[in-house]
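pls design
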């Protein structure tokens, strides 16, 4: 597929489509976050990393071109310059990306970027599937880059695909970790985690449902040879209740090698009626032997998922809190989990946090951490799309969106904020907030089921220099409604 190089310029970002020998401009992008009272005096920079779609010539009548969604960011352990971001490109009006998956990489800490499309997935990228979704990437310590994504052909099959890159520019052919007939099965929302202790190991988890008996399974596969091969996928957890399923699975690797998988569990009926008696929970399971055996789940919190609305009009925003996030302090092994919560604030959309200091066996009582103002349900005080990470110096960071600067004028100004606290002071308090990005008008985003859609998650990672947040920000141009931006900020 065609690659591109994105160079940060003082005014405009210049995008070179190297394979085509064409030079074009991607626009001015989003400026660095404006100063807000209370911001620490630290530099915050923003770079647009997405470019005009590499799938623009693909003839697909339901593809919305130049739309980018759901970024996932990763950094290379021990190398402050290496950053990678993956996203869905050219989403359809009915869900999932019709174009494909694009990965952009930086070797200088996020100043300049080079992008490549993953080949062999969708028909637009030379593969067999009609659409793809939920990309995730993870760096191994030796620089190898792992990627996974869900792919589907409606009414035919769904698959979880794994790829690898040894040079951050070219990619292996996709390997199907599983491929099942549809609608008998549905595979959804994979993630991949490279083992920071062993560059040849990586772990992938996802949810699979079976229509025949309305049953869900949490699936797992791993590679021990750097992605050359993957072990056969197998179920490592099956909820007891019919219709109960998991989503947002993500593995964190503790300093001693223990794997901790965090996920949301709730009612996702496949072939039966909804069951209001199934609790909605954020849960975790552990493996002390590299994924061979797993513990029973531990409940982090029992809660109600937030479902944000556009203030004043009660129109949905497609940003429900179904995807929790987990991060680990690599020096102490402390774990932090965040999620979107409907029970902690009068707005019914806030950010919850819990911590574990014993390897995920026990979790602290959930606390609300966002600083969004109080408001009635569906008001300006709604916070959503949280992510958490822990810097090399032990600083814990949480990012989220909210509507606190909304006005009566048309449109819905939306901002992105970061909270930070020092090791030992979380989750009890001592959080400091800074403004990362915005305001941007979320109503200008492309839609999914009629609702503005940035993705079910965004991205947050760190290098020794600070944190890197991968965000979706909207534009004022209808033919390019939104772009992927990486915002860099020091940890203090």
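designed seq:
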């Amino acid at each position: 597929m065609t690659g591109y190089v994105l160079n940060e310029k003082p005014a405009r970002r210049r995008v070179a489509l190297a394979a085509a020998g064409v030079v074009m401009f991607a626009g001015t992008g989003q400026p660095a976050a404006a100063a807000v009272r209370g911001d620490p005096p630290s530099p915050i920079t923003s770079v647009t990393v997405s470019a005009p779609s590499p799938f623009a010539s693909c003839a697909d009548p339901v593809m919305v071109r130049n739309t980018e969604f759901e970024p996932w960011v990763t950094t290379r352990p021990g190398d402050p310059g290496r950053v990678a971001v993956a996203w869905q490109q050219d989403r359809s009006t009915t869900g999932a990306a019709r174009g494909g998956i694009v990965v952009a990489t930086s070797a200088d800490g996020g100043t300049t970027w080079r992008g490549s499309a993953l080949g062999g997935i969708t028909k637009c990228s030379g593969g067999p599937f009609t659409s793809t979704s939920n990309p995730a990437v993870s760096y191994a310590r030796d620089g190898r880059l792992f990627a996974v994504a869900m792919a589907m052909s409606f009414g035919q099959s769904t698959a979880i695909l794994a790829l690898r890159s040894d040079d951050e520019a070219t990619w292996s052919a996709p390997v199907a970790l599983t491929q099942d007939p549809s609608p008998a099965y549905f595979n959804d929302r994979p993630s991949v985690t490279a083992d920071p202790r062993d560059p040849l190991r990586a772990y992938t988890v996802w949810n699979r449902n079976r229509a025949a008996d309305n049953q869900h399974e949490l699936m797992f596969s791993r590679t021990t040879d750097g992605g050359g091969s993957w072990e056969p996928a197998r179920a490592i957890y099956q909820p007891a209740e019919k219709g109960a399923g998991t989503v947002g699975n993500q593995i964190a690797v503790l300093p001693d090698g223990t794997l901790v998988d965090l996920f949301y569990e709730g009612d996702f009926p496949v072939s039966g009626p909804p069951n209001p008696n199934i609790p909605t929970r954020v849960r975790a399971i552990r493996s002390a032997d590299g994924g061979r055996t797993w513990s029973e789940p531990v409940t982090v919190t029992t809660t109600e998922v937030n479902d944000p609305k556009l203030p004043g009009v009660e129109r949905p925003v497609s940003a429900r809190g179904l995807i929790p996030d987990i991060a680990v302090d690599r020096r102490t092994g402390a774990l932090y989990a965040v999620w979107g919560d409907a029970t902690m604030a009068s707005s019914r959309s806030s950010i919850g946090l819990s911590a574990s200091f014993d390897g995920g066996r026990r979790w602290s009582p959930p606390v609300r951490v966002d600083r969004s103002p109080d408001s009635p349900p569906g008001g300006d005080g709604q916070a959503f799309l949280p992510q958490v990470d822990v810097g090399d110096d032990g600083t814990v960071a949480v990012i989220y969106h909210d509507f606190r600067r909304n006005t009566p004028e048309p449109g819905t100004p939306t901002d992105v904020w970061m909270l930070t606290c020092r090791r030992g002071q979380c989750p009890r308090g001592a959080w400091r907030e800074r403004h990362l990005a915005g305001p941007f008008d979320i109503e200008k985003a492309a839609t999914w089921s009629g609702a503005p859609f940035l993705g079910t998650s965004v991205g947050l990672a760190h290098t020794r220099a600070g944190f890197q947040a991968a965000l979706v920000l909207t534009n004022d141009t209808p033919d390019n409604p939104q772009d992927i931006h990486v915002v860099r900020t020091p940890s203090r």
